[in-house]
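Lab notes, practical 5.
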Amino acid sequence: RSGTARKQTKRKAVDFNSTLMMEIHSRVLFPDNHLRPELQPCIAFDKDLLPAVSVKDNPASCVCTKLADTSVNKNNAYSHRCPVFAIAWTPEGRGLVAGNSQGEFTLWDGFEFNFLTIWQAHDTAVQAITWSHNNEFMVTGDKAGTLKYWMNNMNEVKKLSAHQNAIRSISFSLSDQKFVSASDDHGIRIWDFESGVMERELVGHRWDVKCCQWHPTKPIILSGGKDNKVKLWDARTGLCLDTLHNNKSTVRCCEWSRNGNWFVTGGKDQRLRLHDLRKVNEELFVFSMPERPGASMKEKGVTSLSMHPFRETLIASGDYSGSVYHWTVGTEGPIAQRLSGEQGAHEQCVWGLAWHPLGHLLASGSNDHTVKFWCRPRPGEGLSGGKDDAEGRG
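Output from the prediction step:
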């Protein structure tokens, strides 16, 4: 109408460009990190916030506990509101792919967190998503044991009947010529990526295999399963190198550190166990879930974990109740947490956690049908994040 101005809505966004520009500027003024002035706990120092890759002395500066946005599918003819089982950032960090229990992929924007597109990818629930190291292909697995290749423009390339039961985890080798998949059919299988032919099956777990990951630089595969065991495998021969019996219940998730010296496992025994590959039989550190009044043993079980891309001593984990914890090596308890029941937190099990490639955002997918984006609090807000409004910097 003439004479009336349309009210503009303020869209939530997390802009990391300002922190990168601040890093470029301070790199000239302070070539040595020790010469940089300390960031003070005051909102006036918001302009001095640096990107996560530059914050190497203080892991708390990389903790993402402030709710940036909550994304959920609509219930209509084209999409379904259902549990989210797997999430993965696109290689350039511009979007997040979320796979749900209906076999759909939803692509969310990584800057303003709005909906981009949705398509039917699998016939059954999507359980695993991973990208190749060259950032050109994505491989996904579903509950029926089917593997699919996707190009970075989300066009399907190949389909494989890989396992008899649900595929729980997929991981690429350093060269991207091979990848490994773990399934509920007790099997761990190594595949040639180009031909789609299974080269070797790793036999040793006596129950469902819940997680697997290829070493960042070596032909070693890490796996964990429902038989409470963590195993290390030689990818070249298929032999089991070592078996760890420290876990008291199902091992649901495992991950290597970026340099490959450490690996961490988590499961239903409510603990994260950190090991050193150079001294496997001894636990380097054990993180125990904090006591929560009224919380059952199952609710405190670890369902997902993710190591920070630049700060390897910082680990994020999710549990059955919907809580998200942040841990750092050397500290027994969590340094920050968002508990289920708090405003903005998940209400049910957290099935997937994924750090943004730049490390300034943490995404979580949950059984409560939502994908949540967590960002770093501004200076002065504390690790609780203050008010959950995300207009600001990364």
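Observations recorded by the TA: The longest helix spans residues 17-29. The chain is about 5% helix and 45% strand.
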